[in-house]
């Protein structure tokens, strides 16, 4: 292994890319001071991982990048690539040549690569560490490093020996293990803290879990009692619902009587309408006569005007000159083309004759070839038939004759059926044409009926849209009403407390003087309910009584019934103390947000006189500091009073908030009920309009359906006739095709019969004639030639026919043009004659129309008088009909009221049904039990199971038995269970799961703690193992270095004495290494008393001892002989010569004697622009050439 090349670009003074090729022996780099020789050494150390900027003779790492000169700009990065020959496999990598590169950017980024692949600094150090090249870089001896070795501490000198011995990787392994130990110790401490904390938390959580177990038993008791009470409620509601159904009978009887009276009036109305209908034709006839005469008058008036206009329009026109071609000339051209067509037709006939002759020849040739084939086949089949026997052949002949007879009978039958089908088709076609003429007159009445129907449908769509909109609004309002009703009931249930205060305000309490709960008697402005409830505290749930006597009676009642404790507020205005005026500077007093009765006002003022509403806690704290005598509360319910702060979040709203929400919901419910009634009234009116529009649509649709029915009947008849005609035609075609197929089959059968008969005759004759010569090939060739001749004849005929068609088309076009020209001239003459005739007719019509118009005027006057008389009689009958309809409307109104009453009863039943459904839904939602299951398992008829014992209680002496349901006992049971649940306090429902999870986590963390302890012991064993290995390697390396140092020192200092000593021989793991040197003739041993040359030579002796004890593939020496005289330089050169045999040396020198032993020489110089330039020369090759 040796260094092969070094490439520098942008590194210090090497601005341009520069490559130095090193030889295996000694390579010297020479040049004047400041030319950049030592930059080569710095580049080697830098590319191999040097991280200290000072070691590279710089202040910071970016100083290694070319900083520019007066004539050259600075570069943005420095790159160095070192190529190592690894043919001997010294480096642990599967390459014979390894290139290590390093790039540094001005922004501080650094990149490493091995053979072009990006890598880490650690990868480079691990690659080089096994070859004796580590972080300390003892193989690179830079300027001043000799004195550094001598001034180094014993521990630093130990580091040089360790690096040369390859201890670095063991040190890294130990450091990694120690880092793991440090992090593991932190984890171990954390796990110990966690396990201790979990042990502390398990005790209270265990108590909570025990409370949760007891709460589960009590909650099951509460659930059972509630379910049984709900089952009883459901049974009572269903009974009330069935009782309400019976109250509807009377209303329905009255409704039946009113309906009977309405039927009588409807009969009278029908009779009047029938009389009006009988008189309607007279009125209609009079009106139609007047309208018809009026229309006739208008038409004759228009006819007079139209005839006058036509007389003016039909005046004679001047004759126009003809501008077309002469028809005779066109006929002459056509005759010429017809003559040409005749000649071409003769040619076509000749070609057709030739084709017929060719076709006959082809048929003859093909027939001859076919006959020959058949003759050969007959001969072969005859021989086969004789072998197979005459019996089967005779049977085939008889079968063929039978098939032939059958075919003939079938053809006769099909011919008769074809004739009959054609007769049916012709008769149906004649009938179809006759009815098709009659259909044309039925389309006139469709247009007015379509318009009437479309108008009625538009009105109906508008009515439907109005009804649908109202229905949607009604449904939305109904949903909103149901939601508000459910919310109100839920809030009412929330207001129905089960504590002592609820017992006092209950209807069955019978305590005189109880005015109600304080929350129900106070009205608080929106947004301030939470603040008022927080300020009042427990008093917000208090009961208000009218005097102290009432309060005492309430307390006595609670004690007698064991109802619990309750706060009681006495509303006694006479005993009220005068309240102090509020302090406005501190904010708005809380009492201003509350309104109540006058009797309760003094008590409220007294309770809230010290309270002020603040915007937030910061404002409350500031005002508390200014007014310490007041108490402050925020809108969120946080209280600051007397230096004590109460706050946080509440699990449920206060009684005041619940009461305010209930009042607001009740108001919204009343408004939506009113809106729902109004929508139902509008819905009734819209439905009436919808029914009227539907009636008009049905009438128009019935007229339209009658017309469509007539058209459909005719169309159906036409369709049937057309179908008959098509079916007859199709049947005729099918039968014709069948007859053709039968005839073809008959021909085939006849041919087969002839063949079979011939074969039978030949077989019966039993004479085998010798076959003639086979002429099939010659006959087939003749048939092929005949076909070719026929194709040529067909092509000639087709060409001639196309020419005839073209000439005929041209002649026909000319004849058509001549005929059109003659027709145009005749039409112009006829048009002039027709205008003259029409002028005479129009003049006569004009005169007759004027006479008829005068007579029609008289008839119109007479028809008008008749129309007036009839209309007067009709108005009298209409007045009588109006009186009957007025009575109908009155009875109809009464019927509607009865219907509304019935509807209200239905709504009430629906609400009752909804309450039943709400109870059922509540049971299903809250408890997940179906109503049928509820009645079957928890109904009043079911026995109540005994209460199970709570955890920790002693079992009863006797087994408790189920008992019958009694509502009062179940209510008392529910209260007792709820009281027991309240006594338990706040129960953590997740305590059981949390306790189990925490116990599992404690067990898991305990196991993890044990694993960490075992891992820590394993790491300590690894550290001990590494220390033992380091001691072993260092001891061997030290002994070798010590032995070599004595020998090298004696060579560099003949007669002198030098040795290495350990500072602590008992501790080989941490001991330092010291150097004792005594030059010849001196008794001093301390290095500080030696001269400069002696010190340098001693340091060189130490480095050479390292080199020999633990050889490295290469060494770099930077002016190590600068302080030596000629004698000592010669001794050093001898040692370098010895090192050359096993290692590569790169020497930076100014000494000529050192240059003389070099294998290659690089000259380094500095150009005028401040950039280093390198020139290389191989000296050994030059010497050989010179020799």
What gyration radius follows from the Cα positions, in whole Å? 65 Å
Strand content: 5-15%
What is the distance, rounded to the nearest whole angstrom, between the alpha carbons of the first and last residues?
Answer: 30 Å
Strand order of the largest sheet: 2-1-4-5-6-7
Mean model confidence by pLDDT: 76
Biggest β-sheet strands, sense, barrel: 6 strands, antiparallel
Class from helix and strand fractions:
alpha/beta
Helix coverage percent: 55-70%
Basic shape: flat
By DSSP, the count of extended strands is 23
Q: What can you see in these coordinates?
A:
- The structure is a single chain.
- With 1187 residues, the protein is α/β, with parallel strands linked by helices.
- The chain has 24 helices and 23 strands.
- It has a six-stranded antiparallel beta sheet with strand order 2-1-4-5-6-7. A six-stranded mixed beta sheet has the order 8-20-21-3-22-23, with helices on both faces. Strands 14-15-16-17 form a four-stranded mixed beta sheet, with helices on both faces.
- Strand 6 and strand 7 form a beta hairpin.
- The protein is flat and about 175 Å long.
- Mean pLDDT is 76; it is low at 767-772 and 1182-1187.
Labels describing this entry:
single chain, 1187 residues, alpha/beta, six-stranded antiparallel β-sheet, six-stranded mixed β-sheet, 24 helices, 67% helix, 9% strand, disordered C terminus
